[in-house]
Specification:
The protein is 40% helix and 18% strand. The chain is an alpha/beta fold and 380 residues long. β13, α10 and β14 form a beta-alpha-beta unit. α10 packs antiparallel against α15. The radius of gyration is 20 Å and the shape is globular. It starts with 5 loop residues before the first strand and ends in a 10-residue tail after the last helix. The C terminus is likely disordered. Bound molecules: zinc ion. Zinc ion (ZN) binds next to α12 and α14.
């Protein structure tokens, strides 16, 4: 049987581990590396599917945990699956719900069978097992789905992470057995192991032996430093097969995207661009810009003079600042639109730089413009 999602390696960049690839999914074929906007509740906040298409999004993420609790996976299935439910005919990826159980749920109890917890909406007791996560994802119907994993804190003890990795591998195997639609939904395994090289190695070995159509790297971007994350990627991506896509979960700052690609990552997702947009913070070529600030009250220039998006071509900082201060929803639509365009356009530049074999120069250029090489590196 052909897997639901097929990755073809087109070319490797000459001086780094970056790869240009082609990902074929039941809802479109597109070049990688890519950034995937996050639509937690089956909606990328403040964005219509038509907007996402206009800015070149090829695949979006939806959250299993949220859609399971509300409206319920049976309702999404009845609607004809997520694509129909949210009117999005391109790629969709769902996480397993594990990350939210470990970060949002109030109390939780992890056993070999699964996780017991109280849900964050009404405090009701719930249970999520590897089989249950897969069943929910089979109902939701995304093109790519994730195995249930445990995402422990980065700085947990070696002994704890070792046990956790072994359990995540056993859960991955159970999920694989429970998966009903491998012909049209690709299930990825998630490599864990925090900052420990031998545990990442064990995790990758376990999962690769199960022959998943793609692999995620989890447990990063959870509070560790960027150099720590890069160190883990340096020894983790080479453990993964070349002919399968590699997805780094929860990463969405411009520098981390470029540094991840350099280390061989093909897919990224993060709520960051839309989350900061709702506070009036914009990602620009020259660093972050808080458009709400008083100094923009009479600034009639665009958010980013070097951006050619619809927002930057038509609206001023002064107008957007006014809308956000007046709580007009159109204001955060404009900042969300620009931020997502900014990251998708950045990835377009990254793909071109891989084709041209000048990704390190591209990185240098972006970092310099952003001010990342200087003291205000935190503003990235
Ligand atoms: Zn723009």
């Amino acid at each position: 049987m052909e897997p639901a999602v097929k990755y073809t390696l087109i070319k490797k960049e000459k001086h780094t581990g970056a790869r240009l690839g082609m990902l074929e999914t039941p809802h479109g074929t597109f070049e990688t590396p890519i950034f995937m906007p996050v639509g937690t509740e089956a909606s990328v906040k403040n964005m219509a599917p038509e907007d996402l298409e206009k800015i070149g999004a090829t695949i979006v993420l939806a959250n299993t945990y949220h859609l399971w609790l509300r409206p319920g996976e049976d309702i999404v299935k009845e609607a004809g699956g997520l694509h129909k439910f949210m009117n999005w005919n391109k790629g969709i990826l769902t996480d397993s719900g594990g990350f939210q159980v470990f970060s949002l749920a109030n109390t939780r109890d992890i056993t070999e069978a699964g996780v017991h917890f109280r849900n964050h909406l009404n405090g009701r007791r719930e249970f999520l097992s590897p089989e249950k996560a897969i069943k929910i994802e089979n109902y939701l119907g995304p093109d790519i789905m994730m195995s249930l994993d445990e995402c422990p804190p980065f700085f947990e003890s070696y002994d704890y992470i070792k046990k956790s990795v072994a359990r995540t591998s056993r859960w991955a195997e159970r999920g694989l057995k429970a998966h009903r639609n491998p012909d049209w939904q690709a299930l990825f395994g998630i490599v864990q192991g925090a900052g420990f090289e031998d545990l990442r190695k064990q995790s990758a070995k376990d999962l690769v032996s199960m022959d998943f159509p793609g692999y995620s790297i989890g447990g990063l971007s959870v509070g560790e430093s960027k150099s720590e994350m890069n160190r883990v990627l340096d020894f983790t991506t080479p453990l993964l097969p070349e002919n399968k896509p590699r997805y780094l979960m929860g990463v969405g700052t411009a520098d981390s995207l470029i540094d991840g690609v350099i280390r061989g990552i093909d897919m990224f997702d993060c709520v960051l661009p839309t989350r900061i947009a709702r506070n009036g913070t914009c990602m620009t070529t020259h660093g972050r810009l808080v458009v709400k600030n008083a100094k923009y009250a009479r600034d009639f220039g665009p958010i980013d003079p070097d951006c050619d998006c619809y927002v930057c071509r038509n609206y001023s900082r002064a107008y957007i600042r006014h809308l956000i201060n007046a709580n007009e929803l159109f204001g955060t639509h404009l900042t969300s639109y620009h931020n997502l365009y900014f990251l998708l356009n950045l990835m377009k530049g990254v793909r071109q730089a891989i084709k041209d074999d000048n990704l390190l120069e591209f990185r240098e250029h972006v970092f310099e413009d952003y001010g990342f090489n200087k003291a205000n590196a935190k503003n990235f």
